[in-house]
């Protein structure tokens, strides 16, 4: 009883027009659930609904029927027996006549028709009955949009699931459908309508049958829709896109050949329309239709289609891109145009379908013949008239396409056109033999038009060979017989003489032609091997001789590169052999020849480009390069030849900048890299027999870079090999007593390092910098001592120290057992070893045990009273600090304390950290330069270094280290800056602060913005004082502008608006950097967006300052000033703007 | 006043391509002076909206780059504009817009001269006189309605 009540309530809630839609859906769902869970039978529901289904009140009746229909939709997966279905069909079918309840009837029928056979489906006769009733009672176009959509969905379902049953309705059905879809306008309904037409074509496939008699009618209905064009912008309510609709219409049109007499003329007509989409659609539809209708039906239109295609291509093909910037390997590069692409693919389809007819059309075409016959008059690209140039391009494209489409089409064009062109130019096939044997083109007899068409033909043919399975054809023979002629023709364009330098376009054509000829696969053998070799020879001679024609030379090198990579990639062994002997070996030869005129930088460029064609060539090149480098190095050492120094530097640069990155990317040549590095070390060792080999700074730098990059590329094992070698050289060939260094007290300035020792040491540091963490470094203790005492003035040594502390393993149980050298030991050496020093102006301390012995950090604090020692120590400490900072070691705190101590140390009470410094701060004179150096140490700590301690050189980098450092340093700086009483230490602190803040990610700074802005503004005004600080100033200004534009920063900005604005106004006429002025003004613009209350009082201040920027020397500043002035003037009414 | 538009169907021309200045690519010398030139002035005024159509003065060819004369040394600018129709009563408004825009964009050392192209307007002399009379310009800018109109026309040129 309860259930019946519940049901009644649900029904009532659905039927009642007063209830809200969500309730209605909820009650529907619960009824559906009741039936699905068998708590309610369908019969019971129908009985319950009885009075609603038969009510005379139309509203109640329609709701009732809709309820039943919707429930049926919801139980689509529940089994129903055939009788139930039959009676339901009967009911709903009848209801179609009841126009007020038609929605329910449609939904119900649709739900029944869509049932799958496993859950009980509608039988054929019932389906037919539904269709009949539908055709009899419904006037689709008089219904609303949603009902129409239901109608179309019903037809689609009927045609889809019960094609046989409804097909027997024949004329009635087709007629009814025509009536239903006529003048439909809604996109969603149209999608269905087009589908219905496609289905009709499927169920009446007979081309002379029923559909044929209706073809004209259906076409008339569909025709107005073409081309699909949305007057309203897409999106909105409908989800149908123009492209989807267009595709569906295309399927409808192409569904049956009976449309052909109407459709093709329509497309041909629309092809000449000026509407862009009409053109593209016509071409696409034509292609779809020609595939579906078959070649016979299309044949009669072929001529018309061909001529309009030709016109279309002619009109829409742009100017070809005849430049070498990007060298496409296939054919000439044209700007992409949708119409042209569609037109060409239609043409290709037609050629595939109806080869002989299309080819004869193309070959006999008057335009094609016109071009071919006049080919001899197109001598020079610039002399061809615009019209004919267009024609030439279009014909070229068409020939390219024809050649690449199929073997027969390729044969045909080669047979008729190429031969004819040859004849027109006076080379008939019979006398080519004569030409082959040494006959050479006089350059005037070759002309642009001919070569242009040849390139298109050859490119097409090459593509055909690459793509198709079967490769042989008449074209091979023709190509074979003409290959020598073609080679000579292309080659002669490139001939350079004193009185003739070919224009760029001719060079393009010539190089391109030879390139395509060279890139034919050898297994087809249309191009004999001798021709291939001749091409390589030709190119090489250009490389060697014509280096002063930049365009030609570059193009040639690029072509050689393409050929090389092609030959390698397709493993054409025979060609690869030729390439190696004619190009690679030749290039190697060049390297050793001094007497040729080719400039050395170009030699190196050619060398690296050829090397990058493949690993095998690369190895050869590397070997040659190595030989050349060492030959030059020994030249340098023995004869001190300046020429050789330059050469060696160039070669080393090429090795480290071009070849090593390539090797690293492609892998596989590590053995060579190791060998090279070891060899450099041997050289470095040998050269010590001669005096001061490293006097040329450039050479040492180049060697260090090459060494660093090489070591960086290597694996741990290889690095071990290199470091061992390097260490042995360091040990045996220098005066450093590495083994004793530990025992004897460290003495700064003890060694007056000879330039040779210094060179070897620096080379050694570049190895250390690039090592991986796992690589074993021999005698690390000794090295540390050595580095510390040689710190003086040598930045790479400091970087090496930083690198070591960055990569050493930290103390743990394992390391104690294994006895490996740990980070803690290293730090102990660095910070606690006493160093002796002997300085000219020796300052004797009275309270130490030994007057001139102190630890590294004391040097930083200037206790040696020697500026050079102090700055060197600070520099060393900053790189050590960077190493520690990157790995997140806490010792960094002590180091920064030392730096801050340097910064503030004119205060009487210094920080308690460094013991012993209290007593003498008063009496010491602090060197401002050294203190500035300490401030700049923060820049070293925070910035990303290019030369060391980065990912490339395997540094240990802890995530977010900058953020951590920033948040630990900020309170200290704030505290110190607020307490600093002398102007010098304050400015130094601000400087250090500026370094830290400008390298910190903006997001962290934003959180602290409120506190930082006043200090930041102090920094800005402090930095304007010295012209050398302009880059720091700009960096800092960018931080400020970041704060202004970010949402998070704005609150802090609002509070400090007045001081920010007066700070920025001081910067708008900063004379030394345009970007500073520009950014300052941009910041002011950003500030004008703040709440009016806050900034209105400042308005007159800004408006007074800006006009002088209108007269700035730089245009960009003036433009910003105009915007800024307007933005601030607009805050109030513009009337008060001072004119 | 006339009701309806003075020129209901003006001819619209294409905007000229905004070329990148070649000098911007080489920021070599911090202290080199880039003088105010024809293109810079034209850039200031090209986007001013026509008072009665939603098109810029450039699109209507009321002003062209060639119609700007500038002498940076002597701080002098002359802009010659061509109203779309001879009897255009908007000519004075357009002239006023040009003047206001240049006053706001150029350094104060400049003297700005605004003229109607010879033969392009029925009351050429009167318009020229009105536009270059300081007192009358100042008076015009006291009129809130006029200022509102001018500001509306200038708005797009500040983007």
Automatic annotation (TrEMBL), chain A:
InterPro entries: ARM-like, ARM-type_fold, MMS19, MMS19_C, MMS19_N. One of its GO terms (biological process) is protein maturation. Residues 48-313 form the MMS19 N-terminal domain. The keyword DNA damage applies. Its main location: nucleus. It is found in: Nucleus. Key component of the cytosolic iron-sulfur protein assembly (CIA) complex, a multiprotein complex that mediates the incorporation of iron-sulfur cluster into apoproteins specifically involved in DNA metabolism and genomic integrity. In the CIA complex, MMS19 acts as an adapter between early-acting CIA components and a subset of cellular target iron-sulfur proteins. This is MMS19 nucleotide excision repair protein. It comes from Pisum sativum (Garden pea).
UniProtKB/TrEMBL annotation, chain B:
One of its GO terms (biological process) is protein maturation. Keywords: Chromosome partition. It comes from Pisum sativum. Residues 40-112 form the MIP18 family-like domain. InterPro entries: FSCA_dom_sf, MIP18, MIP18-like. It comes from the Eukaryota. Gene3D superfamilies: 6.10.250.1280, Fe-S cluster assembly (FSCA). SUPFAM superfamilies: Fe-S cluster assembly (FSCA) domain-like. Belongs to the MIP18 family. This is Protein ae7.
């Amino acid at each position: 009883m309860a259930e019946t009540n519940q049901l009644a309530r649900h029904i009532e809630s659905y039927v009642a027009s007063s209830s809200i839609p969500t309730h209605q859906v909820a009650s529907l769902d619960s009824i559906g659930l009741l039936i699905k869970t068998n708590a309610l039978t369908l019969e019971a529901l129908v009985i319950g609904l009885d009075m609603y289904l038969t009510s005379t009140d139309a509203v109640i009746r329609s709701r009732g029927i809709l309820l039943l229909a919707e429930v049926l939709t919801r139980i689509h997966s529940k089994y129903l027996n055939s009788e139930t279905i039959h009676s339901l069909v009967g009911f709903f079918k009848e209801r179609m006549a009841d126009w007020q309840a038609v929605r329910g009837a449609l939904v119900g029928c649709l739900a029944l028709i869509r049932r799958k056979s496993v859950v009980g489906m509608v039988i054929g006769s019932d389906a037919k009955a539904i269709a009949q009733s539908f055709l009899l009672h419904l006037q689709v176009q008089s219904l609303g949009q949603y009902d129409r959509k239901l109608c179309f969905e019903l037809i689609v379902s009927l045609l889809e699931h019960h094609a046989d049953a409804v097909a027997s309705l024949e004329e009635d059905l087709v007629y009814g459908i025509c009536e239903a879809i006529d003048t439909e306008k809604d996109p969603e309904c149209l999608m269905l309508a087009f589908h219905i037409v496609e289905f009709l074509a499927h169920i009446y496939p007979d081309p002379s049958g029923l559909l044929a008699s209706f073809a004209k009618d259906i076409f008339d209905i569909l025709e107005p829709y073409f081309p699909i064009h949305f007057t309203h912008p897409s999106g909105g309510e409908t989800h149908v896109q123009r492209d989807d609709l267009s595709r569906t219409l295309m399927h409808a049109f192409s569904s049956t050949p009976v449309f052909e007499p109407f459709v093709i003329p329509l497309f041909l007509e629309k092809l000449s329309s000026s509407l862009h989409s009409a053109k593209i659609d016509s071409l696409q539809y034509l292609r779809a239709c020609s595939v579906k209708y078959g070649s016979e039906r299309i044949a009669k239109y072929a001529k018309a289609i061909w001529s309009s295609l030709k016109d279309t291509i002619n009109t829409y093909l742009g100017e070809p891109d005849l430049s070498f910037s990007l060298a496409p390997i296939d054919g000439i590069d044209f700007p992409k145009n949708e119409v042209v692409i569609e037109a060409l693919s239609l043409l290709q389809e037609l050629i595939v379908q109806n080869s002989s007819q299309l080819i004869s059309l193309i070959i006999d075409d008057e335009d094609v013949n016109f071009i071919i016959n006049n080919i001899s008059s197109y001598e020079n690209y610039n002399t061809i008239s615009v019209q004919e140039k267009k024609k030439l391009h279009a014909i070229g494209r068409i020939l390219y396409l024809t050649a690449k489409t199929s073997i027969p089409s390729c044969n045909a064009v080669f047979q008729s056109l190429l031969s004819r062109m040859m004849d027109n130019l006076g080379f008939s096939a019979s006398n080519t033999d004569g030409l082959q044997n040494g006959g050479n083109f006089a350059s005037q007899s070759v002309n642009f038009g001919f070569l242009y068409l040849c390139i298109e033909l050859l490119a097409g043919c090459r593509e055909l060979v690459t793509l198709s399975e079967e490769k042989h054809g008449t074209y091979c023979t023709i190509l074979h017989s003409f290959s020598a002629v073609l080679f000579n023709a292309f080659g002669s364009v490139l001939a350079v003489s004193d009185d003739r330098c070919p224009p760029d376009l001719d060079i393009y054509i010539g190089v391109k032609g030879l390139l395509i000829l060279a890139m034919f696969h050898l297994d087809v053998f249309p191009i004999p091997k001798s021709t291939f070799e001749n091409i390589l020879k030709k190119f090489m001679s250009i490389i060697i001789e014509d280096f002063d024609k930049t365009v030609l030379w570059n193009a040639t090198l690029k072509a050689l590169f393409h050929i090389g990579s092609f030959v390698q990639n397709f493993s054409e062994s025979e060609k690869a052999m030729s390439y190696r002997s004619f190009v690679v070996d030749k290039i190697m030869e060049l390297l050793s020849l001094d007497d040729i005129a080719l400039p050395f930088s170009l030699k190196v460029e050619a060398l690296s480009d050829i090397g990058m064609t493949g690993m095998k060539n690369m190895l050869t090149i590397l070997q040659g390069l190595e030989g050349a480098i060492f030959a030059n190095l020994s030249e340098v050492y023995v004869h001190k030849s300046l020429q050789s120094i330059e050469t060696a530097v160039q070669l080393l640069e090429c090795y480290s900048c071009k070849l090593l990155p390539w090797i690293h990317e492609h892998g596989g040549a590590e053995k060579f890299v190791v060998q090279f590095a070891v060899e450099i070390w041997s050289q470095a060792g040998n050269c010590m027999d001669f005096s001061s080999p490293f006097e040329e700074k450039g050479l040492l730098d180049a060697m260090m870079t090459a060494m660093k990059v090489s070591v960086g590329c290597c694996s741990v094992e290889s690095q071990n090999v290199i470091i061992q070698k390097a260490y042995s050289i360091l040990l045996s060939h220098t005066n450093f007593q590495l083994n004793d260094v530990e025992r004897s007290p460290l003495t700064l300035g003890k060694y007056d390092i000879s330039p040779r020792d210094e060179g070897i040491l620096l080379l050694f540091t570049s190895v250390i910098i690039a090592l991986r963490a796992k690589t074993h470094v021999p005698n690390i203790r000794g090295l540390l001592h050595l580095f510390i005492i040689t710190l003086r003035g040598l930045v790479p040594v400091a970087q090496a120290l930083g690198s070591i502390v960055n990569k050493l393993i930290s103390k743990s149980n394992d390391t104690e057992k294994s006895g490996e050298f740990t980070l803690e030991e290293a730090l102990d050496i660095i910070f606690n070893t006493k160093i002796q020093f002997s300085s000219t102006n020796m300052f004797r301390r009275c309270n130490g045990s030994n007057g001139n012995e102190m630890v590294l950090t004391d040097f930083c604090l200037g206790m040696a009273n020697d500026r050079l020692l102090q700055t060197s120590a600070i520099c060393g400490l900053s790189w050590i600090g960077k190493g520690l900072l990157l790995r997140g070691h806490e010792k960094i705190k002590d180091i920064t304390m030392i730096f801050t101590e340097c910064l503030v140390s004119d205060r009487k009470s210094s920080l308690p950290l460094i013991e012993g410094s209290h007593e003498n701060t008063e009496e010491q004179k602090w060197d401002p330069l050294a203190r500035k150096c300490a401030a700049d140490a923060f820049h070293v700590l925070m910035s990303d270094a290019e030369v060391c301690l980065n990912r490339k050189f395997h540094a240990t980098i802890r995530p977010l280290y900058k953020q951590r450092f920033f948040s630990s340093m900020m309170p200290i700086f704030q505290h110190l800056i607020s307490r600093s009483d002398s102007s010098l230490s304050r400015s130094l602190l601000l400087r250090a602060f500026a370094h830290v803040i400008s390298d910190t990610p903006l997001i962290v700074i934003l959180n602290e913005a409120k506190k930082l802005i006043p200090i930041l503004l102090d920094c800005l005004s402090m930095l304007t004082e010295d012209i050398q600080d302009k880059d720091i100033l700009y960096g800092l200004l960018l931080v400020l502008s970041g704060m202004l534009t970010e949402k998070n920063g704005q609150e802090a900005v609002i509070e400090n608006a007045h001081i920010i604005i007066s700070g920025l106004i001081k910067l708008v006429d900063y004379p030394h950097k345009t970007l500073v002025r520009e950014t300052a003004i941009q910041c002011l613009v950003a500030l004008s967006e703040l709440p009016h209350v806050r900034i209105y009082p400042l308005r007159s201040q800004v408006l007074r300052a800006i006009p002088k920027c209108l007269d700035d020397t730089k245009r960009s500043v003036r433009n910003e000033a105009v915007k800024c002035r307007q933005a601030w003037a607009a805050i109030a009414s513009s009337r008060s703007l001072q004119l | 006043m006339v009701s309806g538009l003075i020129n209901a169907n003006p001819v619209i021309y294409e905007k000229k391509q905004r070329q990148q200045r070649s000098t911007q690519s080489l920021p070599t010398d911090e202290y080199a002076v880039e003088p105010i030139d024809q293109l810079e002035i034209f850039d200031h005024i090209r986007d001013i909206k026509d008072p009665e159509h939603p098109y810029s003065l450039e699109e209507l060819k009321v002003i062209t780059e060639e119609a700007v004369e500038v002498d940076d040394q002597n701080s002098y600018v002359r802009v010659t504009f061509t109203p779309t129709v001879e009897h255009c009563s908007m000519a004075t408004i357009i002239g006023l817009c040009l003047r206001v825009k240049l006053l706001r964009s150029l350094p104060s050392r400049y003297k700005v001269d605004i003229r109607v192209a010879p033969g392009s307007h029925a009351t050429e002399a009167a318009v020229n006189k009105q536009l270059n009379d300081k007192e009358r310009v100042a008076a015009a800018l006291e009129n809130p309605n006029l200022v509102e109109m001018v500001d509306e026309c200038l708005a797009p040129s500040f983007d």
